[in-house]
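Hi P.,

Sorry for the delay on this. The queue was packed all week, but I finally got your sequence through. Input first:
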Amino acid sequence: MIIDFHTHAFPDKIAQAAMEKLSFASGGLIPQTDGTLAGLKSVMERDCISKSVVLGIATNEKQQQAVNDFVKSCESDSIIPFGSVYPHAENALCELERIKDMGLKGIKLHPEYQQFFVDDEKMKPLYKRASQLGLIILFHAGEDMGYPAPYHATPERLRKAAKWIDSPMVCAHWGSANMGEDVLKYLCDIPVYFDTAFGYAAMPKDRAQRILDKKGADLILFGSDCPWHAPHWDVGMIETLDLSQGDKEKIYHLNAEKLLDK
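Then the structure:
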């Protein structure tokens, strides 16, 4: 069994435009689906993925409700939706309440798309309310192909933000994309989760092994970042690492099941 903790899908009517815009912004990254929910499910079936967490992302205040309504509509036995709030929105805390009332398990925050530093004190009320509601907070972490430095969610900043968060916190992309040395320095000794999204061909094998050796397998979640990666690519990467079968099972599904109460 494999649970993919990091995927994306868009409403059918905007999926093509969203894929083209994001692909252009990333320098021509080729998506592995058409960006629709149906496209994601097709890849899940092909790559033997049992469940996927679909992450919403609100890039402005007006999008919040529509984004959260869409991901909720995706919910099924195989799709677990996470909502999003736009941190600068006046009603961000109210939208957190609505996300909880909708039965969603967590939220995705993207500090580059949403232009906030994760350790900005202005974020504390949002983190506090999300924690009170028991919402998992998953951050895009590290570099982003579509944005220049300075980056808003470095390992050092994430370590500071973690002190303000009492619900489970997930740092995507092996803790922080393309910042493996700082992940080892700042994040491997604190109880935050990492997902493996976009690791294939982006995370050097030796660095991934060092992170695993220091972090341990109990706080690692399998993720692909589909549609930008095909899940079987990242499965292939995990299979090259020095892991026991028991630790692989933790990464592939057991840790996620515990986190999601599934």
